[in-house]
Amino acid sequence: MKKWNIGWGTISKCNMNCQFCYSKHRRKDSEDLSYSDWVRFIDENYPRIHTINYGTGENTLDRNWFKLVMYIRRQYPQIRQALTTNGYLSVAVKDPECMAVFATCIDEVDVSLDFCDEQLHNEFRGQSKAYGWAIDTLALCQKHNKPTTIVFLGSEKNVNEDNIDGLFQIAKNYGAILRMNMYRPTEGMNHLSKQFIIKYDTLLHALNYIADKYQILAMNDALFSTFLTGNTSADPSGEQSIRVLADGSITPSTYLIDENYIVANIKDHNVLERLEREDSLTRIIERTIPEECRECVYRETCAGGVYDRRYLWYHTLNKKDPYCPGIFKEKAKASIRIAKGKFSSVHDGYLPTIFFCPGGVDNAQV
User: Fold this and answer.
1) Residue 132 and which of 67, 85, 259, 283 are 20 to 30 A apart at CA?
2) How far apart are CA 282 and CA 64, in angstroms?
3) What are the residues facing 227 on neighbouring strands?
C-alpha cells in the first residue's frame, strides 16, 4: 500500500497579495469544500496518508482548519501534520482554542519570509504586517519547541548575498533551518513572471555561496542534485506526493494546478486507493527522458530534470529542464557537498526544494 505525502490547501482565502503568487489565478473562483468533505476524505483514506502539509492560501484564517487538525490528531495520530504559514499563525493563536491545537497537534511549521528587510518583504507580499507576523511566528515556534523552517522564494529579486546572509541570521536567531523554492511561472512566460524567474548564473552563484558559507542539508531536485552534488534525487511529484486544492482537486505537483493536470477529487470515494490502483498520475507524470538528453552522461540519473519546470516552460516532458547546464554551454561538475547528518521535514521528498542550515547540522530537526 502506497503512503502519500499530501500538500493540502484547505481554503483559497489569503490575507496577502504577493507579487509572485503561483496560485492566485486558481484560487480566485474556487468553490472551497466544507469541513465535512475534509473529514470524509480523511476517514476513507487515512491508511494511505503518511504526512500532510497545509499550504496555499492561509489555512489559519479558518477556525475549521484548526478543528480538522485536532480531529486528525485524535483519530489518526500516526499522520504527521505540518503547516506552511505566511506568519498569520501568530495572530490566529491568540484564541486559546487555536493555541491548544497548535501546541498539541502541529508537528512542524514553515514560515514564509523572502526578505530580511521588513519594508522589502512587506512590499513583496502586499501586506504591511507580513514581516512582523513572520517574525512573531518564528518566536512562537521557538517558544513551543516546534521544528521550524524559513521558506523563501528563489527569485531574481531576492537571491543576493546580503539578503541570503540576513535570512540565515534570522534563522539562526530562532533555531530554524531554511528552504528555497525556486519561482515557477504558473501563469505562463509573460512579462510579470519573467521578472521573477531566477537566472541560471544567479542561482548557481547563490548555491555555491551558501555551500561555502553555510551548509546544504538536502537537494530534492533531480537536475541540480545530479550535476552539483553527484547524487541522484528522483523527482517525488506524483510518485510520493500529491497536491490537494481548496476545491478538492488532486494534482501531482504544487505548481501544476491548472485543469489539465487534475486527476481526481478528494470527494471521490476511496480516492487514494483508486489513484494507486489505476495509476492515474502516470498520464501526467511519467519517466520521459527527452531525445535531446540521449548523449548526456546523466541521462539515467537526471532523467531530463524536474517535471513541473519542463511543463511550465515548455508544456511537455519531451524537452529537458530549462536549467540544464548544457543549455548554458557549461559542463556539469559536482562542486557542492551535502552536510552529513540526519534531519527530518515533511518537505524532504515531497517536492523539488533545497534545504539549508545556518550554523551546522545541530540546527536541523532530528
Assistant:
1) 67
2) 34
3) none
List pLDDT tens digits, range 187-240. Answer: 777 777 889 999 999 999 999 999 999 999 988 899 999 988 888 777 888 888
Q: List b or e across 225-240, with b for residues whose CB sees 16 or more CB atoms inside 10 angstroms.
A: bbbbbbeebebbbbbb
Count, in order, helices (H) and strands (E) of the chain.
14, 11
Closest CA to 221 of 301, 327, 113: 301
Q: Bridge-partner residues for 208, per DSSP?
A: none
**Residue 79 CB partners (closer than 8 Å, separation 6+):** 46, 49, 50, 51, 52, 72
Q: What residue has cell string 527569485? A: 155
The mean-pLDDT minimum among 103-117, 130-144, 308-322, 343-357 falls in 343-357
Nearest Cα to Cα of residue 299 among 218, 219, 222, 239:
222
Question: Using one digit for the tens of pLDDT, what is the confidence trace for 89-139?
Answer: 999 999 999 999 999 999 999 999 999 999 999 999 999 999 999 999 999
Q: How far apart are CA 213 and CA 348, in angstroms?
A: 22
Distance in angstroms (rounded) separating the CA atoms of residues 259 and 251: 9
Burial of 188 (0-12, 13-18, 19+ CB in 10 A): exposed
User: DSSP label at 9?
Assistant: -
Distance CA 97, CA 30 (A): 28
Q: Could you give the C-alpha distances from 244 to 9, 351, 364, in angstroms and in order? A: 6, 14, 28
- Please, what sign has the CA dihedral across residues 255, 30, 106, 241? negative
Q: Please, are residues 56 and 6 in contact by the beta-carbon 8 Å criterion?
A: no
CA torsion, ordered 52, 340, 135, 90, to nearest 10 deg: 30
- Among 69, 149, 148, residue whose Cα is nearest residue 106: 69
What is the spatial distance between Cα 227 and Cα 274, in angstroms, rounded to a whole number? 36
Side by side, which strands form the sheet with 4-8? 215-219, 354-357, 177-182, 148-154, 108-112, 80-85, 49-54, 4-8, 241-244, 249-251, 264-265
Please name the fold of domain 4-146+238-284: TIM Barrel (3.20.20)
Q: What stretch of H or E contains 51? A: strand 49-54
